[in-house]
Design goal:
three-stranded parallel sheet; two-stranded antiparallel sheet; 7 strands; globular
Length: 174
C-alpha cells in the first residue's frame, strides 16, 4: 500500500518478492495523484487486503514520518480489534529537512512551498500502541524491521494452521 492524500494498492498480497521489488523501484512521490499524508486510508486499505485474503489476523507495518490528527490512531485501533497488529517504523530525523525526489530535486506542494516533514514520534507511537504493535525509528540496519516483525502472538487463522493459504505459489521459469 502507498498513501498520500489517498491510498493505493501497489501489489496484492503475495510471496513473490521479485515482483514486489520490481514495483518498489518505480515508486516516486510524484506518482501520487493527490498530495497529503493520510496514513489512516493506507491502514484501512491494508486491512481490506488482509480480509479479502481470508486472514483473521496478521501484521501491518506502517512506514511514516507523521500522521494526520487521530485518524491513523483510530484506524489502527479498529484493525487491532479485528485481529491485526499495526506496528510503525518512524522515517525521518528530529530536525525537519526538505524532501527530495530520486533525482535530488526538492519536492514542493502547491504554491511552490517546500515539503519539510518532521518526525512525529509521539503520534506514531500512539498509532503503534492503538494497533497493539511496536514503534521503532528507522536505522541503517535491519534491527528496526526485525524488532517490529517479532511475532509473540500465535497465529489462529484456520487456513494458515492447515497450511492452506489463499493464492498460489508460482515457480519462476524465465
Amino acid at each position: 500500500m502507498v498513501f498520500a492524500g489517498d491510498a493505493f494498492t501497489v501489489t496484492p498480497l503475495t510471496r513473490d518478492v521479485d515482483t514486489i521489488r520490481a514495483l518498489l523501484k518505480a515508486l516516486d512521490p510524484g506518482l501520487m495523484p493527490v498530495q497529503g499524508s493520510r496514513a489512516d486510508l493506507g491502514l484501512e486499505k491494508a486491512g481490506e487486503l488482509l480480509q479479502q485474503a481470508g486472514l483473521s489476523n496478521g501484521q501491518i507495518l506502517l512506514f511514516a514520518d507523521g500522521v494526520t490528527a487521530n485518524k491513523a490512531r483510530k484506524a489502527a485501533a479498529h484493525l487491532h480489534k479485528q485481529g491485526y497488529r499495526v506496528s510503525v517504523l518512524g522515517m525521518g530525523t528530529d530536525k525537519a529537512e526538505p524532501l527530495t525526489n530520486a533525482q535530488g530535486q526538492l519536492l514542493r506542494i502547491s504554491g511552490d512551498k517546500l515539503i519539510v516533514p518532521q518526525l512525529e514520534t509521539t503520534a506514531l507511537q500512539a498509532v503503534a500502541k492503538a494497533g497493539g504493535g511496536r514503534y521503532r525509528r528507522f536505522t541503517n540496519s535491519n534491527v528496526d524491521i526485525m524488532a517490529l516483525l517479532v511475532n509473540d502472538t500465535p497465529i489462529n487463522n484456520k487456513n494458515l494452521m492447515r497450511g492452506d493459504t489463499q493464492g498460489q505459489d508460482w515457480k519462476d521459469r524465465g
